[in-house]
Specification:
The protein is an alpha/beta fold. Helices cover 38% and strands 17% of the residues. The chain has a seven-stranded parallel beta sheet, with helices on both faces. It has a six-stranded parallel beta sheet with strand order 10-9-8-11-12-13, with helices on both faces.
């Protein structure tokens, strides 16, 4: 089966990681030829060049670069894919136009959040719904995402993210990681880590309020806020100078998240509109308990009191309360971490996601209903 995948860019992010995990899974199967195309030269996952696929950057001149339609049309004609898989709204727009009269089957894989503002007056939500009607299938990575965007039920399916557990083998030693990230041995520090882009969709503001308050009276607590983005400098300025880079640390983008999670005691994700978070999956795959905001697809991952805790939005005191429970009860934290890892092994391993996408592709090729 020949599959053409198109994505706007390969910057650090959950959607981009999901694409590459699927590509890895498909490349381990026999009979699948993958052509991955990025519409931007932003490629922050260097290992894409080592994958056994065809990978190309087709740099768009602007968000309304009409010439891309003709370039994509030429690729479709030459490659003759059985399935075209779009990974974002922009790619869906270009591919829908390029595919006109070629009639290849397009999978619209654009729902990766559970936006609370995805009403009919929201521009992005309107585009998601439009392309869900124009393409053969729409995929979300959470049931909450499908509910939020209200796409056609007969053409919509939820396929959870998959993770390659081999990523957690052969890691750096915890002592090396601690010296690199903390600048000192971990000792008896209790580390909370949030891996997320610094943008308006993530609530770093609430986390900083919790972190500053907790760190002010507990010198053992350390927060790692990993990632980058347009809001990072503004968030850094909210950290008291006495805590910045000592107890509240901004390591920036990292390519060794799996290694850093070895020294992490609890994984954090504070956000109002998450679909199915790759960060939470990574925390759980590492055997760490989770503290995360209620809502969206997070509740399809975290069972409150079992593998972590769910907290209300804009509630720094709840974050502190749950952090203190885990600090004071290491056996409870370990049990939650074990349950989380088992949950990931049972439901989110890369082979399961790959199998579900293969099933979807085959249904489309056989003209069967996808849901």
């Amino acid at each position: 089966m020949k599959i053409l995948m198109v994505i706007n860019c390969l910057k650090k992010g959950g959607r981009e990681r999901r694409v590459l995990e699927l590509v890895k899974g498909l490349s381990r199967q026999n009979g699948y030829t993958i052509y991955l195309l990025s519409l931007s030269d932003v490629v922050e996952y260097d290992y894409v060049y080592d994958l056994p696929i065809s990978f190309e950057v087709m740099q768009k001149k602007s968000n309304k670069d009409i010439s891309l339609i003709f370039k994509l049309r030429k690729i479709i004609r030459n490659f003759q894919p059985d399935i075209i898989h779009s990974w974002d709204v922009m790619s869906s727009g270009y591919l829908t136009a390029a595919n006109l009269f070629l009639n290849k089957k397009i999978v619209n894989g654009v729902i990766y959040d559970a936006a609370i503002d995805s009403d009919y007056y929201n521009r992005n939500a309107f585009k998601v719904r439009l392309f869900s009607h124009l393409t053969k299938a729409t995929v979300a990575n959470s049931k909450a995402g499908l509910r939020a965007y209200k796409t056609p039920a007969s053409k919509s399916v939820c396929i959870y993210n998959g993770i390659d557990l081999k990523r957690f083998d052969n890691l750096k030693s915890p002592s090396e990681v601690a010296n690199q990230v903390l600048g000192r041995p971990k000792g008896d520090s209790f580390i909370g880590t949030m891996v997320a882009s610094f943008n308006k969709w993530k609530d770093h503001d609430t986390l900083i309020k919790a972190a500053a308050k907790l760190c002010s009276y507990n010198k053992k607590v350390v927060f790692l806020l990993i990632g980058d983005g347009p809001e990072m400098l503004a968030i850094r300025k909210k950290v008291p100078a006495s805590l910045l880079d000592t107890q509240i640390i901004f390591p920036g983008n990292r390519n060794d998240i799996e290694s850093i999670l070895q020294i992490t005691d609890v994984g954090l994700l504070i956000t109002p509109r998450e679909g199915l978070s790759n960060a939470i999956i990574e925390y759980m795959a590492s055997g760490k308990p989770v503290i995360a905001s209620k809502g969206g697809g997070t509740e399809e991952l975290v069972t409150d009191g079992e593998n972590g805790y769910l907290v209300n939005q804009k509630s720094p005191d709840e974050i502190i309360e749950k952090m203190e429970i885990l600090m004071q009860n290491p056996e409870l934290a370990a049990t939650m971490g074990c349950k989380g890892r088992q949950w990931i092994k049972d439901h989110f391993e890369i082979s399961r996601m790959t199998t579900e996408y293969i099933s979807l592709y085959k249904k489309l090729l056989n003209n069967h209903q996808v849901a």
